[in-house]
Design goal:
Elements: H1 3-19, H2 23-26, H3 28-33, H4 52-63, H5 70-79, H6 82-107, E1 110-111, E2 117-118, H7 121-129, H8 132-166, H9 170-185, H10 188-217, H11 222-235, H12 248-263, H13 270-274, H14 282-311, H15 320-331, H16 337-366, H17 371-386, H18 391-414, H19 416-432
Antiparallel strand pairs: 1-2
Helix pairs in contact: 1-6, 1-12, 1-18, 4-10, 4-14, 4-16, 5-12, 5-15, 6-11, 6-12, 6-14, 7-8, 7-18, 8-9, 8-16, 8-17, 8-18, 9-16, 9-17, 10-14, 10-16, 14-15, 15-16, 16-17
Length: 436
């Protein structure tokens, strides 16, 4: 993703945060009360296909991926510990970007002839800005990118990991992934939502608890690590041995890029899942977008970063998932399986979540008749990805991910007056009714 797109994403987040009067920070108690505290509540009002938590679980399934494990490690080795501080900054502003996307997805969603609720950037760009051509560009980029970053790249990483650890033939892994994925996606958003509602909290809890256990054992190191992060963020230090250019600006670039990439705020993917939520309140569902960024970046990515920094291996020359695994093993022998299982679960969840994104985009372009062929192709491409060299696919996916952001942000920024008005009205009503 280019520096220009990263700056546009960050700038958009800052603009939206100011426009909503920093409510994602000042109303944090309200946000927690209406998201974390209601995760498993079945009390919903309005229309839609899945509960609000099932919708956010589907979005998190795609968002929480191998980047939370290997991507954070790579950011630290390239940009130094200071990159984590800038990752947090990107997440703080990204919360409002994700909130705005989700709000607009609900506000402009539509009901299909067969009774399903669909929405996302292509719908708020077309219906809000009256620019169908731009909506089609987003849908085209997203549908193609989904086969890269959400399909073949994920199956390839799982196949490589299982082959290296357990000597499992990559084609065997590809076939198993293909069959398991088919069983989930064949039921559409309702089955995907039911799956994600159980699977995503389980996989996140496994990784979070494992990381917190390790950090609790080394709790005396936490103040030093926080100091290290802030020191490097503001002064800049070389990261990997022999690497001499990790300046403050480099640390900012790497940290912001990792923050944007890991939570996908501004890319326009997650609103596609949120649009199916049962709700009659765009603002209320938008709060789940903030929840999504908090879980993905502020919690999961931070746990990865702290374990790596506490282990002292961040400048050892290791990088990626290998560094994260070594950090876990150093601090708690035989705990590396947490990373291995986490990588497997996160990758499978991403496959499921991105299938739904791509399916909605391809349906927008070509109609309902393409859904079944798309699902079949999606499952088959997992086998192809497991046995292929994906160097060029990685590059293409990265470019298309960036291109998704441009039409999406045009939609979000030009429709921001709606975001600001609905947000302001919502909290005015709550204040009048003494709702906290």
């Amino acid at each position: 993703m280019s520096s220009a797109i990263i700056l546009i994403l960050l700038g958009s987040g800052i603009y939206l945060t100011i426009g909503t009067k920093f409510f994602s920070l000042t109303k944090l108690n309200y946000i927690v009360k209406h998201t974390f505290n209601n995760m498993f509540s079945k009390k919903t009002s309005g229309v839609g296909d899945v509960t609000p938590f099932q919708a956010v679980s589907t979005a998190l399934a795609a968002t929480v991926g191998t980047g939370n494990i290997s991507g954070v490690a790579t950011a630290i080795t390239i940009g130094g510990p200071g990159a984590i501080f800038w990752m947090w900054i990107a997440a703080v502003f990204g919360m409002t970007t994700k909130y705005s996307e989700v709000l607009l997805a609900i506000y402009y969603r539509k009901r299909t002839k067969d009774g399903r609720y669909v929405g996302g950037p292509m719908y708020y760009i077309e219906n809000g800005l009256k620019m169908k051509w731009l909506a089609c560009i987003f849908a085209l980029c997203a549908s193609i990118a989904s086969f890269g970053i959400g399909n073949m790249v994920q199956s390839n990483s799982v196949a490589d990991s299982l082959n290296a650890t357990f000597n499992i033939n990559p084609i065997t892994t590809g076939i198993i992934l293909s069959l398991a994925t088919t069983l989930v996606i064949i039921g559409g958003i309702k089955r995907i939502g039911s799956f994600a509602e159980i699977f995503v909290p389980f996989m996140a809890a496994l990784y979070i608890i494992g990381g917190l256990v390790i950090l609790s054992i080394n709790v005396n190191m936490i103040p030093k690590i926080i100091t290290l992060i802030f020191d490097h963020a503001l002064s800049g230090h070389a990261a990997v041995g022999g690497f001499t250019g990790a300046t403050v600006m480099h640390s900012i670039k790497i940290g912001v890029a990792r923050g944007v990439f890991t939570n996908e705020a501004g890319l326009g993917s997650a609103p596609i899942a949120h649009a199916a939520a049962i709700t009659d309140n765009p603002v209320q569902q938008g709060l789940w977008g903030i929840f999504e960024v908090l879980v993905d970046t502020i919690i999961i990515c931070s746990i990865t970063a702290f374990v790596i920094l506490v282990s002292g291996l961040w400048n050892s020359g290791l990088t990626g998932a290998g560094l994260t695994t070594a950090a876990f093993e150093t601090l708690l022998p035989n705990s590396g399986f947490i990373v291995s299982i986490g990588s497997l679960f996160f990758a499978f969840a991403s496959i499921i979540g991105w299938e739904y994104y791509g399916e909605r985009c391809i349906e927008y372009l070509f109609g309902h008749k393409v859904i079944l062929p798309y699902r079949i192709l999606w499952s088959l491409m997992l086998i192809v990805g497991a046995i292929s060299d994906l160097t060029e696919i990685w590059l293409l996916s990265d470019v298309l991910n960036g291109l998704m952001a441009i039409p999406n942000l045009i939609g979000v920024i030009f429709l921001s007056p709606i975001v600001f008005k609905l947000t302001n009205d919502h909290f005015k009503i709550n204040k009048a009714n003494h709702i906290k």
